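From the pipeline queue, job 12 of 40. The input is one protein chain; the requested action is below.

Action: predict structure.
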Amino acid sequence: MLIDVQERYRTVLNGWPRVTAACELLLKGTQLLGVPVLVTEQYPQGLGHTAEELSRHFADGMRVVEKRSLSCCGAREFVEVLSSLGCQQLLVAGIETHACVSQTVHDLVAAGYQVHVPEDATSSRLARDVAPAWAKMLAAGMLPTTSEQALLELVETAEAPEFRGLQAMLKDAKRWT
């Protein structure tokens, strides 16, 4: 899942380059591995659409779910699309950590999903809002990860036909400290 990485946040999000680089890696990696991606946008009329450096990696015809609720689970279309995918494990990236990401993670865990959140692919406008959100998500049962770790867990083995492509992608990925 890619939650609300929209243009209006470009100049105000703490760590925008890190977050978008990690999200781009996740989008490219999940595409290579054939993992379905669900994208949301919070009130795009006011916040703009998904950042171009990410949306250029969307598959043709990818449906982006517009929402007003902070939790993605508050949007009926999101719940319907997620249910149709039949997934039990979810990888959640996006913004803001303390708002839409946190509320979505709590709702997904409560609904019985196993939720993984790559730390490098999330942030908030204010750095001080991130740590308390992570503490709450961890207490709720979220599993922390990074974008690279998540992709390696998805590929599972160096014998997979996609492994070499993923390895090259990881080598070429932008790294932000």
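Job complete. The radius of gyration is 15 Å.
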